[in-house]
Every structure is written in C-alpha cells, then in structure tokens.
Amino acid sequence: MPARNRLSSLTTPTPRPRQRTTAPGTRWAAVLALIIGIACGTAEPATADPAPVAPPMGWNSWNSGIALNEKSVEATIDAMVASGMRDAGYRYVNLDAGWAAPERDAAGNIQADPTSFPHGMAAIAAYAHDHGLLLGLYSSPYNQICGQTPDNASLGHEEADARTFATWGIDYLKYDWCGPDTDHDTQVPVFTAMRDALRHSGRDIFYSINPDSSPDPDLTTVYDWSGIADMSRIDNDLVPIWHNPLPTDGVPAGLFTMLGVTELFDAATRAPRHSGPGFVDDPDMLVVGIQMAEYLGSHMNSIETTPPVEQLPPAQRAAIGQLFTLPPDVLTALNQPVVSLTETEQRTHFSLWAMLAAPLIAGNDITTMSEQTRELLTNREVIAVDQDPLMAQGAALPGDNRVVVKPLADGSAAVALVNWSDTPATIETTATAVGLPAARDYTVRDLWDRTTTDSTGPLTASAVPPHGVVLLRVTPGR
Length: 478
Prior knowledge:
This protein has helices at residues 70-82, 85-88, 121-130, 158-168, 184-200, 219-222, 261-270, 292-304, 314-324, 328-334, 343-355, 371-377, 380-386, and strands at residues 57-60, 92-95, 134-139, 172-176, 206-210, 231-233, 280-282, 360-362, 395-397, 400-407, 413-418, 425-430, 442-446, 451-455, 458-464, 469-476. The protein contains 13 helices and 16 strands.
C-alpha cells in the first residue's frame, strides 16, 4: 500500500492534506534568491471538487544555509522532533534546490546527487516517515534561473519524474517556473502537465507552484491558480528585513527586488483572495530566526556551487550578474545586524502570516536555533489561528490598518493590533468593530502573553512597541 497510509496511525498532529489540483512548486532559483521579485499570478478554475487543504507546516532548506546532504537532513528531522516542532504541527521537511544530481541517469531519470545522498532519496523519505514527518522536493520545468541545472529540469519528463517521486515516497513537490521568457498562457499547460502527472503517479503529493519567476508583473494580481495547484506563490521572495531599504524606483521589469515583511504583507492583502479549504495562497516561507547576513551568505554560497558561469544558459548568467553587480556599499549595509528582523519584528511577522492563513514553512537552521526562536515557532495558540479550518485571510479594518481581523470557525475572531510606526503606540478598537456580534461580555485571550481577560467590548493594547503586535482571540459570551 502507498507509504502515506502508514502515517495514518501516527499521533503527530496536522496530517498531510490530500492532493486536489496540482501544479509546480515554489521557490525560485539559487541566484535570484537574493534580490528577487517579479509579480506572478494564478490560473484556471478547478474542474473537480477539491479535497480539504490546510496551510502546510514544515521546514524548507532554501534559506537555512545548511549544506544539503544526507546527514544534515537527518539531523534536521531529528531536531524537528526533539524541538517539539513536529508535535506543534510542522510536518514537511522540504529539500529545495541542490538535492538533485546535475544530470539524469542513463535512462533519463532524475536522480539524487550520489555524493550528497549516497543512499538515495527513498532512504531519506523513509527516515522522515519513521519520525512522523513527510518529505518534499523541489523541481522546475526549466531550471534556467535556478539553483539546479537545466539537465535535470522536468519539462517533457513530467510523468517519469512524478513516478520517480512517488516511488521514493515523496509527499510534497515545490515546482518553480524558473524560465524568464514566457507568459501566463505558456505557464498554464506546463504547470497542468505536472499536476496531471502527480495525479497519475499513484501517490498523494501536495503540489505547490511558483509562477513568480516570470517577467509578467501582473500575474499575481490577475490569475487564479486554484484549479491547478494546491498552493501558489502570490508575490516576490521574502527576506529577513522589516521593509526593503533599497530604492525601487526605475527598476525595470525583469530585475529583482527584495521584499520585507511590510511589503509582502501589503501585497498579500491587496491581491485577490483565493485561499479556502481547497487552496492556499503562499506569501513565501517564514524568515523567523534568520539574520540578513546569514541569508545573504547562504545564497552567495548557493551561487558558488552552481556550474561555472560560462557553462550556464544566458538567463542564468544574467541573473548571477545582477547579484554580483549589487554595489558594495549596498551589500555592506544589508549585512549590518540592525537591518535584520528584531525579536519583536519576528513575532509580528509570525503573527501576520498566521492571520493570512499562510503556510508556516520555517527556513532557519533547526539544528542550531535559539530557545527564543523555538518558542516563537511553536506557539500553538498562534498556530491554531493559522490552521483554523475556516481558512479566512485576515484583513485590516477600512479605517485603521493597525487592526487586522481574521474570522475563526468557532465564531470568535483573531485580532492583530499592529504598530507599524517607529514609536510606541496605543491601539484601540471594539469587539463589534471587528465584526463580532453584540454581547454582554467577551473573553479576550492574548496569544503571546498567554493571559485571559473579560471585556464588555473595548479592545485596547497600550504601549505596543515599534513594529510590535498584540494578538488576541476574542470570543463573544454565551
């Protein structure tokens, strides 16, 4: 029987959702990882009733800076169990670009890098499954501007690659476009081909796509991919900064810009909402526990591991050129500790992603994370807001963007009181203003302070620190 059925007896939470409509995954290329962004969108409506899909939780190797190999992945799996992340709901261990051999085997099959993974990918999947976790891989139809080589790209190999993934016991595919010269009409059949191949593979594989590495800046705001994928990226890549300090005026389409927490949250709330029980909008993985200098270093290292520049296709050479032409003073400035997210900003970032019903995919090195990072990532009350079965996406009140509201399935509401400013602030609203019915009293649970109070209606957060948040769960009295 399929390996996924072996997991049904496990007691770890958040079982893997069944695949619905599939399409290629997410995360862009090794070089673009640094300064990246190109808007992208989504596709045609679903042709079949979707199975329930919840925002996936897990870990992805892309931002972690770890050397991707058998020992490091097994150590990450061990750490996810020991840290309590698995039991808090994090289930996927996703290997981004760098797991595959540069070339296919003699029969044309995609293969794991034999040096980094001497026992093969099926052994890694079995190790994950034996620890109550699930394994995901990264691929692309093109790999023209990504951290893997065009020789192992999946275009034209969809059925074979999907069968290989199924045979290995893979549970998640992150499928990145990685082809700069195309448009939406070209993307739809390519992403659909992998969706169909995954459906035919005989295994239930979550399908996450990133059409974002395409030059069309309107893709994220125009198209709906919910008929093709389980999850799709909605905008550019997130880096571990509060906001992008670099000027973006005059940057031509096709060049890449970084998005901080504020820019990506704004983009997510402006974009058409498609999330629901059958589909997940993806504003990119978490950057909790990652310093900007580490982020830059990990992506510069990923460039160094690609083939010599002269051997790469023109598009990939151009992308690397964009990275290395960053002015030295900009690179120096970005490496300053003050640029990275503070502890307060990381808490706000995690809260906002929960309010968006976003995937909670950690990107830090789990094996070395601090206790502070572990506690932040495993706050089960905040996770419950993200995983709420209603899958509503939070939105700011029309008259006050400091008050972000997310309806919850039990009739309560999550309310994030966010101080976007650079000075402490008091933020006030009321239970009825956030959409709750009139009641004699309300139970107010502070999800970070873990305190519970009663209110007749007013909701007040005093002295919220700059870029800080107070996250409440407000329940009308019976």
